């Protein structure tokens, strides 16, 4: 695929996390791509490379704007592009593209609040909206996603197959050190309800071990209140990558209490030679090897998590095993696989049209 004109859609350019790392990899593959988004906050996206045209719909208030997302996105004219790539967990599958344009949607998840955690009061309305959302899901020419976990959701709700392309991490940056671990466990996460940080805090309130929590989010004040007066629990708000790597390298292990769509932090800590204690559902089952690079717990309860921590400490993973597992998910593998898939689809498409 030589010199295509490319547009990349991404839901929210106003934060930093695993999905944003994937966006950076796509921008490295397509360095001249234009970017489209629902909202763009330059103050919160210093990580974004310079030189890209950014087109934002400036839908500032998510709650009030929700009914208009799809309508607004449908107004975008993609007729001048050869390739449109949407990387999304909400509405990136609703774009309208002309027949000559190849439209690929890479799902980090399908809409969590529509299918997994719908607000109880809105369920009747959301059930109706699901019918529209399933029509949107027919629009992309091809679906990619980040895990078998998400592929199964796409099949269940959209009745379409999705090609799994695991996102990657920078294994040259996230590296082990030879020192033995220090006496603390680690969480690296947005501080929101579905991440289950409260479960871990309540568990460590009854354990003699230290816990360091890295992240920000709307539940930050609540979680700090929950941990108040427990001096074995610390919060870290704003840290850079070197500080994060240092915390990974020196921890006893990462606590992963949520059902994650895929999740890159479990790979980052393994790349630094440390293991994972994870809830036995979701994407962690695709990146952590039970009994070798981590351990799973079956119930989201303090008792189940405590038992897992004790088992983990009785036989910690070997640093070299963790590192070996993480290298399989190097970001260059993702970029190579993504490029191969797109080029193959494009080539077949050109053969058919000619």
Automatic annotation (TrEMBL):
Signal peptide: none
Keyword annotations of the record: Transferase
GO BP term, example: lipopolysaccharide biosynthetic process
Stored InterPro entries: Glyco_trans_1 (IPR001296)
Record protein name field: Glycosyl transferase group 1
Molecular function per GO: glycosyltransferase activity
Domain Glycosyl transferase family: 170-328
Pfam families from the UniProt entry: Glycos_transf_1 (PF00534)
